[in-house]
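Usage

Read records sequentially. Each one opens with the input sequence:
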Amino acid sequence: TAEVLAAAAERVRVVDVEVTGPLPDMRVQGRIYFLGDGSTAALDMASAAGFSLLPDSNRDPTRTTTYGVGELIRHAIEQGARRVFVGLGGSVTCDGGIGAAQAMGTSIELDDGPARAPITGADLSRLRKINLSGKAPSDAEVICLHDVDNSLLGRRGTAHVFAPQKGASPRQVQMLDGGLRHLVEVAEASLAAESPGMGAAGGLGFGLHLAVGAKLRPGSDSVAETIGLDEKLRGADLCFTGEGRFDATSLGGKVTSAVARRCNTAHVPCFVLAGSVETGLSIVHDQGVTSFQSILPGPMSINDALPRTHVLLSWAAEQVMRIFFAGRSILPEEAR
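and closes with the structure output:
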């Protein structure tokens, strides 16, 4: 998301900062894009706490933290940013954003005293007090761009829907959801927890909302406005969009649903190409998706597919284009 915002800016300064990684004892290079005169910054939380930073064997959302994301945001503010866009998505965390809040100056007390190490998902059930008076001094505006509209808790919450994708067992899912409920109680913020998007990126937006009053916005809509997608669709013959897996969660505010809505308004055919697709999604045709398909030509493991993504995507796009133009060639001239 931050890369797309940077690509749309006239001037960009890229700064890499060493911060805490998804595991408390890990160090990674996070990236910040300073846009225009530098008063606006954009960063992806995934650059500090992303899925791709950990191998399968180390993915466990009870052990991961968003502390490094808070360090990135704080650095952007200290370097003069008055507005910071934070892309929520691709996370390997489920700490309710308290790790990030902690890094930005929020003091956290656990059952056994003040928290000194970065907070992880497993620590949520041990929260005793959250002191918001110690947050980083700043009047900067933090805007979280979320890719899904899930709330923080419950069956559609971040633990139940997304933690299994991050390596959580059924028992850990229950533990994480319980820990997030405890966090909401300690913070006395039940109303905020119900807001759409609070379940994105392991609840990161919730912690940033507590710490610095961060606002949440649908990321796909914000990016579409920034790049002028509606204008680009005017007069277009067709539009391609896609994601890793096209399933029921795709309809909850992700890029594909936002693009499809705009295509529907502009009367432009919208084709979704994805790594894999869920069956029984005919409802998407009523929301602007003309057709969706997997880019895989046959059964294939993800380890075999990922290195060939470019080739597979090109192949699938060609097949769609051939069908599209074949259909147009048999229409009466006045209907083309």
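Summary fields computed downstream for this record:
- The chain has a mean pLDDT of 91.
- Residues 91 and 201 are 5 Å apart (CA to CA).
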